[in-house]
Specification:
Elements (H helix, E strand, L loop, with lengths): L1 H28 L5 H4 L5 H11 L33 E3 L8 E5 L1 H11 L6 E4 L4 E3 L3 E4 L8 E4 L2 E3 L13 E6 L5 E3 L3 E3 L3 H10 L6 H7 L23 E6 L2 E6 L2 E3 L6 E4 L2 E6 L2 E3 L10 E4 L2 E11 L5 E3 L4 E10 L5 E6 L5 E15 L3 E8 L3 E17 L1 E9 L13 E14 L4 E4 L6 E13 L10 E3 L1 E6 L10 E2 L16
Parallel strand pairs: 1-3, 2-4, 3-6, 4-7, 5-8, 6-9, 7-10, 8-11, 9-12, 10-13, 11-14, 12-15, 13-16, 14-17, 15-18, 16-18, 17-19, 18-20, 19-21, 20-22, 21-23, 22-24, 23-25, 24-26, 25-27, 26-28, 27-29, 28-30, 30-31
The protein binds 2-acetamido-2-deoxy-beta-D-glucopyranose (4 copies).
Length: about 500
């Protein structure tokens, strides 16, 4: 009897050890040198051959540069597109485990390195898996055009501080690409809660104290969760998904959630299309913009749901020809142009249209915010057909933007002109209209048409519409009456050609 159960026990132990060892083995597979042999896909022999020739061109990832192969020329040549145009590269074939636990970064790097070389190739991140991927750069400039990043699975970010070094500006980065598309039903999950708890008071990027003080609310800091963590997350928080220096990029279908900071950022891009995107993070997660645009032109964002803790869409300097329509925003801080002109910088923003937007439970609705002391201009902005419900400040222009209690006064300002608000309707909880323009450079050509804003039943302390140094046209009647907008042009107007921005 005793011998029998001893055997059983030994057997169980052996099995347990085998299972344990194989799990170690599995996780190590992606780190080891032989990952290509481990889970060889249909293209594996191809990879082996090509890896030798093109190993240096992928330029993927910053973590560990491979030992340099001797390059024949200092200027890398753009590779000829190999014949297999449209090939597919599945991260599973490169050793990705997709178990939410093993680090799949290397598999992603390797799949990308091969996808990069083929015009109109597809990199596949399949459904039904959860890939743990560390900071990674999918970068050109030597990649072929029109690559499709088919994202149907879930990509999750590391939550241990070590993976982030001293802090990085982004987690998943796509740079210097032409015609790249990210498409699918998948999810990018930044698992940002480990970052948010540290930051409310440490990081005054955009705490919006002005509005908070108007509301007479005290921010209470969440209790730190650091006791359960090995070490503190770096103070620089990454954007979840960032595009830089790219042309004609598309993001569609996917969900981006719980970013440590901004969810989706386009910087220095020309030709951006975002639709059927979903962004989701808690309303109290700090600095978690939905979509952030900077130095980017010809941008179309539509049919998208944005819930986050900061601006749903933030349009920064250098943006022109931006069209946003059919977007749901809330919770969040609304759709904002700015803040612009911080630290005396010049900012130029023009030709922005925001149409057919529902805002629910947001701080501001449609807003322009500039710092004192800047220069440049914001011109040619249309906010049309904006439905608000329980929005603190539906219409706002603030040329005294300041993210802490007081900022130094300056005479120069980012000039604001040709701004139209039409068909803005719904309920507010603090102040329906706040248009506060520079003393030295009044806002010009501000047009308000079909404004119908009623106090929400749950509003606390309601304020009347406020304007300061704002000139333009009011198309009455409005609800409430807006008596503060000055008709016509100011006697001492500024010259739009002298703002330092393109005409
Ligand atoms: C702000 O709240 C404090 C305490 O609740 C109250 O005493 C004060 O009058 C409030 N101030 C305004 C401007 O509502
Ligand atoms: C981007 O798309 C536009 C419109 O389809 C096209 O005219 C332009 O050449 C494209 N840009 C690049 C760099 O391919
Ligand atoms: C303004 O931007 C829109 C895209 O939103 C574009 O179609 C239009 O041509 C632009 N207007 C000018 C004058 O560039
Ligand atoms: C800035 O100007 C405002 C309005 O004129 C004034 O109330 C405020 O005290 C000034 N702030 C500083 C720091 O000078």
């Amino acid at each position: 009897m005793g011998g029998f159960s001893f055997k059983k026990l030994t057997f169980a132990l052996v099995i347990a050890i085998l299972v344990w060892a194989s799990s170690i083995e599995t996780c190590n597979a992606r780190r080891g040198k032989h990952w290509r042999h481990g889970k060889a896909g249909p293209f594996s022999s191809l990879y082996k051959k090509k890896a030798k020739n093109h190993g240096h061109q992928g330029n993927v990832g910053k973590s560990k540069p491979k030992p340099k192969e001797k390059q024949p020329l200092p200027i890398p040549e753009v590779p000829q597109a190999p014949p297999q145009k449209g090939s597919k590269f599945n991260v599973l074939d490169y050793g990705a485990q997709g178990d939410g636990n093993c680090d799949d970064t290397k598999a992603f790097q390797a799949a990308w390195a091969d996808a990069c070389k083929v015009e109109a190739s597809t990199m596949i991140v399949p459904a039904g898996y959860e890939f743990l991927v560390g900071p990674i750069s999918f970068s050109g400039p030597y990649c072929q055009r029109n690559i499709l990043f088919q994202l149907d699975g879930t990509i999750i970010a590391p939550t241990n501080a070590n993976a982030w070094g001293k802090g990085l500006l982004q987690w998943l980065e796509f740079t210097k690409l032409v015609g790249l598309t990210i498409k699918g039903k998948g999810t990018i999950d930044g698992r940002g809660s480990v970052w948010w708890t540290h930051s409310i008071l440490d990081d005054p990027i955009d705490n919006e104290d002005l509005l908070v003080s108007l509301l007479n609310i005290t921010i209470t800091q969440s209790p730190p969760v650091s006791s359960s963590m090995e070490s503190k997350m770096p103070s620089t928080k990454p954007t979840a998904l960032r595009f830089y220096g790219s042309f004609n990029v598309t993001v569609t279908g996917i969900t981006i959630q719980n970013s440590p900071q901004c969810h989706l950022k386009f910087d220095s891009c020309n030709g951006v299309l975002v639709y059927s995107l979903s962004v989701s993070s808690p309303g109290d997660s700090p600095n978690t913009d939905g979509i952030h645009l900077q130095n980017s032109q010809n941008v179309l964002i539509h049919t998208t749901d944005l819930s986050c803790g900061d601006d749903c869409i933030s349009i920064q300097t250098g943006c022109t020809n931006v069209f946003v329509h059919d977007v749901n925003c809330g919770p969040g801080h609304g759709i904002s142009i700015g803040s612009l002109g911080k630290d005396g910088t010049t900012a130029c923003v023009s030709n922005i249209t925001v149409r057919n937007v529902n805002m629910h439970n947001t701080m501001t609705g449609v807003r322009i915010k500039t710092w004192q002391g800047g220069s440049g201009s914001v011109k040619g902005v249309l906010f049309s057909n904006i439905q608000v419900s329980d929005v603190q400040f539906p219409i706002m222009i603030d040329q005294y933007y300041c993210d802490h209690s007081s900022c130094t006064n300056h005479t120069s300002a980012v000039a604001v002109s040709n701004i139209a608000y039409e068909n803005i309707k719904g309920t507010y909880t603090v102040k329906p209209v706040h248009v506060s323009c520079s003393d030295s450079m009044p806002c010009m050509d501000v047009r308000l048409t079909d404004i119908e804003l009623n106090p929400a039943p749950k509003g606390y302390h309601m304020y009347d519409p406020f304007c300061w140094n704002a000139f333009g046209e009011l198309y009455a009647p409005t609800v409430p009456q807006i008596g503060c907008l000055q008709q016509g042009t100011p006697s001492s107007s500024w010259d739009p050609t002298e703002t330092g921005c393109p005409a």
